[in-house]
Amino acid sequence: MDDAEYDLPFFHQQGFHRRTCVVCGHAFWTLGDHDRCQEAPCREYGFIGSPIFARPYSLHDMRETFLGFFEGRGHTRIRRYPTVARWRNDVFFTQASIYDFQPWVTSGAIPPPANPLTISQPVVRFIDLEEVGRSGRHFTLFEMMAHHAFNRPDHEVYFKNRTTELCHELYVEQLGTDPRSLTYKEEVWEGGGNLGPSLSVGAAGLEVATLVFMEYVRDGERLKPMPLTVVDTGYGLERMVWASHGTKTAYEPVFGEQYEELRRTFPPREAAILIDHARALNFLLTDGVVPSNSKEGYFARLLLRRSLRILSRAPEGPDVHAIFERAGREIARDFPEVGAHRDDLRRVIEAEVERYRESIERARQTIRRAEERARGAGDHITSDQLLEWYDSLGVPPDLAVEELKEPPPIPPDFYALVAARHENEAPANDYAEPRQGLPDVPAGVPATEALYYADPYTVTFEAHVVWTDGPFVVLDRTYFYPTGGGQVHDVGHLGDLAVVDVERHGPYILHRLERPAPFHGGDRVHGRIDAVRRTQLMQHHTATHLMNGTLREVLGPHVWQAGAYKGPEFARIDVTHFRPLSPEELRTINRRVNQLVREDRPVKSYFEPRTEAERRFGFTLYQGGAVPGKDLRIVEIQGFDVEACGGTHCTHTSEVGAIDILEVERIQDGIVRVTYAAGERALEIREQHELILREESKRLGVPVTDLAKGVDRLLAEVESSRKADRERDRSRIERAASELLKSDRVERVGPITLIAAQPENYERSELMNLSRILSQAPGTVVVLATERDDRGTLFVGSTAPGISAVEILKSAQAAFDGKGGGNPASATAVGDTGPALREAFRQAHAAARHLAREPGATAQGPTDS
RNA sequence: GGGCACGUAGAUCAGCGGAAGAUCGCUGCUUUCGCAAAGCAGAGGUCGGGGGUUCAAAUCCCCCCGUGUCCA
Fold it and tell me: Domains (ranges, CATH) in chain A?
């Protein structure tokens, strides 16, 4: 980055000079006479015991001071975004305030909610989890204070100079920092293909702000200026509060009294972890994360289980709910939504605590059994086993060691070894790929006016072609709905040609025709939408909002939409929930959702300024993911459900007709999927089902109401006939056995009873059973041969301990080219038929007779074996 | 999203290429005035589903389905 990037008029006006840090080598600007930048590790902390601000601040005071300062300087205060970044698929959590505006605002696709703006954004970072409680300054969740400006060529708000000036003014004039103690270190920021200069602001060893200027796009080796430049700043609120107190760690002023109290029971590190995790969980659960074994849910589980593990070491201490709720009440003073559904969150935590208990109990059993087995084998549990248990059973190594009589040592680098087990795994997914295969519309083509928002009922219209490319057509205005928001696209006709697909592409709506478009720019075309399909899509979409609201109502406000699909055949919604739905819950949901249909509530769709909509309805608006932009399209089912949504909807709930739940499944831990049909499709499916019921009841000859009984009867019949088959086989074999036992096939050879026979057409398993019956008495050797399906089978069974069935078999196998083997008790080989088989049988018989005469042959073996 | 582990009798699990098992529970009998308990006997299994390898698969391989867990 060019030095000139940092050479700001502000620095010169104020009399800053540029130095180079003797430690890190970075250039920095200062009014003082430092030879190094004022950030650790280049210099040690200097604010402990001597705060750098004029007075101590609480979190609340500092937040208000910051936001007020920027409001006083032309910024609009924006509400926080959820800590779960549902609007992005490259990350789970909001890790910086700028995440709120990526990718739509920062790419220029959608205008920011305000410009410039200021915000306090709680952010979650798991990268430093191990440092929490240890370093005295790390948190899983912290508030990133920020002021942002988005500059377009035609509208410059402010950039580097003003940003730096504002920052300096905040610290010096508002907070009373000695201007000579501040250093502005030159750095380069890079991320997501963009980069730009940044200034890291240090004071007394602390990095008190980062000022990032997103300015360039990397284009190979060259840098291209961005059409939209962005001021991205970050000020750690907890850090600022800490610096205002100058305490030993940041935890005292941030965690306050609760920290003092917990420290009476727990060491400082554990007390800090407990509160830190409780704070983060309060935000995460409020924002709709349900603890689970994958994705964002796992991080919530991790925090909770770490806390439970600590708490289990102090059984007399407070329980997890007490700590969680205490922390929640503290947060609710400034973020009321966090305290709003405490009972519901309590249930979520209870369910998770229960699962943890079960999981630990299971693990304990496994450990005990494994050790018994190992000891039985004269072996012991290895450190490697501890690793395996942690990975596959979730047993913390210290717990495993507690449980073992002879524990192995826990490797000092245990968690590094765990990480090593996972290092060859696929990396996390990236930004969403832009939709493939759509042509780029050249600049200058006017944006498509989307008419379906205002009027979802019109299905025929006139419009002008503004651009075409092969089968793709862009009109000046359209009623065709493009795939989006989980709703599939319309189909229909433009002129005589079928529209097979409709996609949104930037500001354009692309109609894809069945074949290349014969249109030219300026042509007037007649559009006709498949009204039946559109109506069905509208019914499914409105049904989905009804279902979503009902699920929240019945299951609790922890329920958030985690995905949805509205097609012409059926619709489905995935929601966060901590256990499968019970039949009673399902019934309640079914009743309620259809009641709402019958109530014929008005459904209003309208645009509203974002800040206003958020103020009125809160974050549950964003069920389909956060929608940036100044104005939101609101779909409001009167008195029931409000969501930001771009889909086509019925205007009254009765138009949905009816909703039939088709299927409920747990698609993953923490996510429940409900599939249903509405309107005409609900009727169709109901008719299909009824037809099936009627036909099947006719087939079974029972009334529909007795179908279950009929099926039970049928299954019982199947079962008993299978049993009868088995019984018949058994008695046939038993008969054969008793005939054999009476025949001259039985001979006594010394202490051994030898039975050799060649029954006809037996299966291998039948031979085995026959032999089993024949050799019930100990000291019996059985040799059997049979032919079936052009294969000869030779079977030897032995209950004489000294005589090995497999040995006898081996001696005869070659005679009929038999393949097989076995053990001393039983052996089988399959090979040729005819004379070869008879020869093998003869050899086996002879070998058995020979072995029986050997001195080692006994009828009774050692009884203890 | 990926790795690993696990799905065997009503329950908890063993077996991990050669003739499906243990414990508890269940049923019956013995014993008892009755209960508990004990003893004896018995019922209960398409070894999650589907392909494959093999003379032979609960066991090995592949694909599904389900559960648990760890990591991103």
Answer: 3-249 (3.30.930.10), 255-377 (no CATH), 449-529 (2.40.30.130), 543-688 (3.30.980.10), 736-853 (3.10.310.40)
